[in-house]
Specification:
This protein is of the alpha+beta class. The chain has nine helices and eleven strands. The strands form four sheets. A five-stranded mixed β-sheet has the order 1-11-5-3-4, with helices on both faces.
């Protein structure tokens, strides 16, 4: 490559901790998560906000996030209004495309420093009442989960991504046992790296808004800290169950009888439901350097 075509390099990166759906990051929107990661990565790289030429990030589930999620995150990180922003929706490739496009800008000479990354909050993804602007003279109307409708279901084959994966694995003769072994190894490596502090530098601590206290610090996304945050707040919200009123009444009863361990355990068990992971992708920064 000639010296007139600069190459793109990653200067620094940061991400927020991970949390479960309706968990410790439930009160924080996707653009707020993005703003926190941008700010942390800029500080880690020693890059002033005035040096940023563009902000590009991916966000698949944009319903309910408000206008211009990328702009919201950029402004939240202290970057100026004059800096152009782009929000990319390319499904699972959104974050990767958010890296490819800044590299093109840099090689073309249109930018020198570009913020690139992605942001998601499944907890804050709304349910959709499709066709609600039309009259509904009679009968029920079904709510669509935007996590599925906008994020996980193929609009052509009407398959959830997991089903499509299973079909592909069957075609390629990849057994369930092999998949489980790979998944277990991946989790074990992640846990080992976390315990060894490998992720400590890239994870930006967050002050979460809690029902019981104004803020609580979530450190490094470790199991112990996430569990502690959930234990502090387990009684505060009944989630995704038709028996929510019963859960709330039992929760209140268990709080009144704090020494009633049996009642407390029953209330906690009622609070459990199937949860998905609330994702927050990593942010990276690109800057031009001569070759």
């Amino acid at each position: 490559m000639s010296t007139q075509n600069p190459s793109a390099v990653i200067i620094s990166g940061a991400r927020t901790p991970f949390a479960k759906i309706n968990g410790s990051l439930a009160s924080i929107t996707a653009p707020e998560l993005g703003a926190h990661a941008i700010k942390a990565a800029l500080e880690a790289g020693g890059i002033p906000v005035e040096a940023v030429d563009a902000v590009i990030m991916g966000q698949v589930i944009q319903a309910g996030s408000g206008q211009g999620p990328a702009r919201q995150a950029s402004i939240g990180a202290g970057i100026g209004w004059d800096v152009p922003t782009v929000t990319i929706n390319k499904l699972c490739l959104s974050g990767l495309t958010a890296l490819i496009d800044p590299a093109r800008l840099i090689r073309a000479g249109d930018a020198r420093v570009v913020v690139a990354g992605g942001q998601e909050s499944m907890t804050n993804a709304p349910h959709l009442l499709l066709g609600s602007r039309k009259a509904n003279p009679y009968g029920s109307q079904q709510l669509e989960d935007s996590i599925n409708y906008d994020g996980l279901v193929d609009p052509f084959e009407k398959l959830i991504m997991g089903e499509a994966t299973d079909d592909g694995n069957a075609t390629r003769k990849i057994s369930r046992e092999a998949q489980d072994a790979f998944a277990a190894t991946s989790h074990q490596r992640a846990a080992s790296s976390r315990d060894a502090g490998v992720f400590a530098e890239q994870i930006a601590l967050m002050a979460t808004r809690s029902e019981r206290s104004p803020s609580a610090t979530l450190r490094h996304g470790s199991r112990s800290s996430v569990r502690a945050a959930r234990i502090r707040r387990w009684h505060a919200r009944a989630i995704c169950s038709p028996a929510s009123s019963m859960m709330q009444s039992r929760t209140t009863a268990s709080r009144r009888t704090r020494h009633g361990a049996s009642s407390s355990r029953k209330s906690r068990s009622l609070m459990k439901c199937s949860l998905r992971t609330c994702r927050s992708r990593r942010w990276r920064f690109l800057r031009a350097t001569p070759t």
